[in-house]
Amino acid sequence: MNGLRNMSFNGDHDSATDSIKIQTSPISLLLAGIGVIYFVGLFNHGLIPSMEPRFAEVVTEMIAQGQYLVPTKNGIPYVEYPPLLYWLGIIGKTVGLPIEAAVRLPCYLAFILWIVLLAKLQGLLKFPHPKIALPLIGAASPAVLWHFFTAQTDALLIVGVGLAFLGFAEIRMSSPNSGSQWAAWWRLWGGIALAVLAKGPVGIACTMPPMGLELILAAWFSAETGKSIFRAVGLTWSMGLRVKPIRGLILITVLILPWYLISGIQESWDFIRAVIIYQNVERYTTGFDHLQPWWYYFGSVLAGFFPISFLIPAGIWFCARRRADFGPRLALIWGLWTFMFFSISMSKQGKYILPSAPAFLLLGFYGLEGLRNQGRALRWRGWVVQWSASVLFVWGLVVVVAMPALSERFSKEDEYVQIRAAMASQPGDLFHFGWPRSLSLFYLGAPMEYVRSSRELYQKISAREISAGSYILVETKRIPASGATPRGRHFHPLAASPWFEQVHGAKAGSDLQLYRVLPQAHMQSPPDTPDPEIVNWRDMKFDTD
Q: b vs e for 242-252, b when ≥16 Cβ sit within 10 Å of the residue's Cβ?
């Protein structure tokens, strides 16, 4: 490392107690500030689409049905995520929390734990910066702030991966003769188990391969092997045994496998097939509605970890040169593995790379150490720390002051109140055009009948399976624009009399349109409609969003 290693950033103090107090109190203040902001955020705004309504609705339905094993949405099994966050939400709701707070609280607690993990990781790798630097910059990263603020399983995945790598680093940096490493072992394998219970097999993909690769490269660069492949294999094996992999795999199996087995027996093996194959393999290889170009994550890293992201290229260069050292090697392998793994995938979202957020932050820190001009490095660090503190202050104001006022913009509760009022004046059955979105289920009740296409809708009206006076709820985005060619997902033709009358949504800006079926609709012949979209076996049996 350069001259930054020999500098003191906390001043000279005669008293060790004063030194400890100065080093630790900023972290306590950071945790307290985040805790206050997010405690207020538990209760002061409505559900934020698209993730929060999903979890709120699933938890609500599981409690109502007394079904605590298989997640359920709109009355059928929901295959999007493993059950951990649903179970935690059920516990929160059972002890009396509002449903919004019940699904958010596990993610907010995960954020606090993640900040603590960053502090421990910075101390373990002995960076010559104030102890608050890495936790503060990490907590203020835009992508991190937002994805821990909204209830979603990725928060638990991120903290599980972070916990696993902290345990791995503790074992790798300890002496083979240092005694028991059980605490670190539990963090390593318990973190992997947490990641898998939160998000599925991707928890393994984000941890075990980069850890294995680190062991292989550590052996190869070791002076003990002399670049002999046989010696490198032997050293890799001996280092690998220190993490007690057999016991770890047994722990993961015991914690994870029972849910898959019992769910498959209770529900069906097609459910397990959808949870594992569709959610992981098929999405990875096809992309579905998350299809993005190969370079997508360059922008995600730049924006998501601003401003420390500008130092990541310098950090990669520094770590590549110092690859024989554990810290730089771990940051480089962890960050680049996750980046490349998800770049190869056809399905891309910015949050997918957040499990490696600590690695990208570490690369930024190593970029600071790679700056030869010591004064420039200090100025960069000071500016980034000040920026991060300012971001957290502004974010606190947004959450505490502005979020209640913004709530209606995203929760749309007032619009659903209007829809319920319109239906109450002339009661009738409600049908959703297309699969009901989670917000509609949450505010209007589930299970909700639906039709998949315009052809099915008009046929059911003509056959009197949908009676006169029934309501059809349509998302505005499913109504084709004027002059556009209608597709299978569109509501077309959008005729007025003699089929429907519009009772809500005529005003510009409405997300939903509500129509009532007129009495004379049954006497009409079904009009020409777009060919329906092909429905696969999963969508026939399960909710796949």
A: ebbeeebeebb
CB distance 305 to 312 below 8 Å: yes
CA 201 to CA 290: how far, in whole Å?
19
Q: Name the DSSP letter for residue 402.
A: I
**Of the candidates 21, 9, 29, 22, the residue with the CA atom closest to the CA atom of residue 392:** 29
Which helix H or strand E contains 432, and what residues bound it?
A: strand 430-433
pLDDT in tens, 397-455: 999 999 998 888 888 888 899 999 999 989 999 999 999 999 999 999 999 999 999 99
Q: Which two tokens stand for residue 143?
A: 């992508």
- Please tell me what DSSP assigns to residue 543: B
| Three-class SS of 339-391 | HHHHHHCCECCHHHHHHHHHHHHHHHHHHHHHCCCHHHHHHHHHHHHHHHHHH
Which residue in the block uniquely carries the two structure tokens 């992997």?
192
Say how many Å lie between the first and final Cα of the chain, rounded: 49
Q: Could you tell me the two tokens for 33?
A: 């500030």
Could you tell me which of 120, 344, 324, 366 has the C-alpha nearest to residue 214?
Answer: 324
As a whole number of angstroms, the distance between CA 163 and CA 187 comes to 6
Rounded CA separation 94/516 (Å): 38
Cβ–Cβ under 8 Å, residues 298 and 304: no
pLDDT digit string (tens) for 312-371?
999 999 999 999 899 999 999 999 999 999 999 998 999 999 999 999 999 999 998 887
Q: Counting beta carbons within 10 angstroms of the beta carbon of residue 221, is it exposed (0 to 12), middle (13 to 18) or buried (19 or more)?
A: middle
- Evaluate whether 459 touches 525 at the Cβ level (below 8 Å): no
- The per-residue DSSP string of 195-227 comes to HHHHHSTHHHHTTHHHHHHHHHHHHHH-TTTTT
CA distance 297 to 295: 6
Interstrand relation of 72-73 and 76-77 (parallel, antiparallel or unpaired): antiparallel
Encode burial over 13-50: b for 16+ CB neighbours within 10 A, e otherwise. eeeeeeeeeeeeebbeebbeebeebbebbbeebbbbbe
Please say whether the beta carbons of 496 and 487 come within 8 A.
no
d(CA 86, CA 106): 10
In this structure, the strands spanning 512-517 and 500-504 are antiparallel
Q: How far is Cα 42 from Cα 149, in angstroms, rounded to an integer?
A: 9
- Name the nearest CA neighbour of 43 among 392, 391, 400: 400
Q: 503 near 515, Cβ under 8 Å?
A: yes
What gap in Å lies between CA 391 and CA 402, rounded to an integer? Answer: 15
For 412, the token pair is: 């749309």
Nearest to 272 by CA among 108, 123, 79: 79
pTM: 0.90
Query: DSSP characters for 246-280?
Result: HHHHHHHHHHHHHHHHHHHHHT-HHHHHIIIIIII
Largest CA distance in the chain: 93
Residue 472 φ/ψ, nearest 5 degrees: -115, 115
